[in-house]
Amino acid sequence: RSVYDGEEHGRFMEKLEARIRNHDREIEKMCNFHYQGFVDSITELLKVRGEAQKLKNQVTDTNRKLQNEGKELIIAMEELKQCRLQQRNISATVDKLTLCLPVLEMYSKLREQMKSKRHYPALKTLEHLEHTYLPQVSHYRFCKIMVDNIPKLREEIKEVSMSDLKDFLESIRKHSDKIGETAMKQAQQQRNLDNIVSQHPRISGGKKSKKEVCASSDVEVKNTSPMSEQDSGILDVEDEDEDEEVPGAQDLVDFSPVYRCLHIYSVLGARETFENYYRKQRRKQARLVLQPPSNMHETLDGYRKYFNQIVGFFVVEDHILHTTQGLVNRAYIDELWEMALSKTIAALRTHSSYCSDPSLVLDLKNLIVLFADTLQGYGFPVNQLFDMLLEIQDQYSETLLKKWSGVFRNILDSDNYSPIPVTNEEVYKKIVGQFPFQDAELEKQPFPKKFPFSEFVPKVYNQIKEFIYACLKFSEDLHLSSTEVDDMIRKSTNLLLTRTLSNCLQNVIKRKNVGLTELVQIIINTTHLEKSCKFLEEFITNITNVLPETVHTTKLYGTTTFKDARHAAEEEIYTNLNQKIDQFLQLADYDWMAMEPGSKASDYLVDLIGFLRSTFAVFTHLPGDVDVHSTMSGKVAQTACMSACKHLSTSLMQLLLEAEVRQLTLGALQQFNLDVEECER
């Protein structure tokens, strides 16, 4: 290549010619060196020709002698021929025995296999015996006896293999709980892994999940040797620590009895009988599994065991579907699943309705989601389960409302209905952190100072937020859109405000011996809670990421709730004032026949006016940021004052016009007039 590329052809040819000349010289030297040997070889060859002639003469002489001696050999050969004939007869006899002996050995082997319960190899031996060995010796009488026994042996193998299948079915019925528990653990691990991957997407590349590995191994049928005939069907697996890898559900089960029995029945031409029997028995087991225990609703473990058994059942059926050809089909599995779904949902509806503990309902929801995710991983449709969870969600909301009713009652009962005093900046910031309150005037005031509201305001506000968090917990993993979650939380919160909290406030307002100071404080508190509703709206928006302007977004009715409570408190103030006035009026003791009036207003009236003066002083504590004079004083204080004056005047008129007062003196009227003037003053 380099010669052509370098264009040095001439030089290369010169070198080549020189090389040829060198080789020619070497060849010439070599020929000269061996020439004498060539001459010597020719001389030797001439000598050999003479010797060859002598050898020819000797061979001719030997042949003549051999012909003379061969006559005796021919006689010996005739004798040998007779011996060979006898030998052939003996050999034929041995061959016949050789044909019979394997048949007898195979039959003996068959009996031995039957005795040791190795039925699949026994069936293979039976086939070889029937189709390979017996036809070769069928004219013997002992073979006919064997042929007659073959159907009986086949029937015996069928019965024994069916017995193994029954043991297997009984075993998986007992262990379906463990199988289901393992499958659900595996689904939980997968879900945790998915969550980790979704949080750290960079680390997810290249690793195959446990579920994928298991799914790929599901399709492989276990190779079972005849020696494993007596396996129990369930392999023992020790309880593993949580941080160890959970075995695949199929790793717990040895399916070889099913495969053996299916193969035996297929070979015997009774596959359809086997399929029908298997499906019938599994249907019966399904009905047993789907029957919930009567006390299932009492603990979460009751539900867990119920779900484990169902999952275990369908994991086994799914594996059978993928590892046997036609023993079960998709239509059969779907039919079983439809039945299971309807019965499971009915059982859950019934039992969950007994549950009054929201934490148990939440745990049940998480368990149902795991149950659904596990079976969805095996290809079963679970939409109906998620639809049912939305029903349970309503019940969960009800249990939450009952729980929070008690919480609100405790908060309201334990409140002292007086403004919260703060002595330092730390306490002030703590309360402002718990409740959204801003007042520039209050911030400027030196410590110690007081918030206008009592302790139940931040407590109630925080409990409403806790309720919202509790609602949000239930919506997790339900595959709901953020809009649906937002709508669910808002509706539940509205129920909490309009029904639960409203009733608790009304009960406090309407209870006996409630003081005017307490009622005034309730008005102040509800005013601040009403203002906080917009912050609750923002709080919900932040956790659901659904803007309040979105179409169909449910609005919070908190404003209405607190307004209603405030109006009820105001009405209660008016009623209480009138009742107090009535109590003072009962002390009125006019002498309608007095000749001279007293020098001053009646004592009861002076006391009454003193009480009213101190009472209306309370109204000056109404929140300053609500424009005391124009709003609260104008609405609550003035209305209370008008109501009190009207009630007092009406009551005084009734005193004067009572039926028992038959006559009056001028002195009595002047005393009465003095009291009325005192009221005016």
UniProtKB/TrEMBL annotation:
Signal peptide: none annotated. Residues 13-83 form a coiled coil. Residues 197-233 are annotated as: Disordered. Pfam families: EXOC6_Sec15_N, Sec15_C. GO terms for biological process: Golgi to plasma membrane transport; intracellular protein transport; vesicle tethering involved in exocytosis. Residues 222-231 have a biased composition (Polar residues). InterPro entries: EXOC6/Sec15, EXOC6/Sec15_C, EXOC6/Sec15_C_dom1, EXOC6_Sec15_N, EXOC6PINT-1/Sec15/Tip20_C_dom2. Keywords: Coiled coil, Exocytosis, Transport. Residues 15-184 form the Exocyst complex component EXOC6/Sec15 N-terminal domain. Belongs to the SEC15 family. This is EXC6B protein. The gene is Exoc6b.
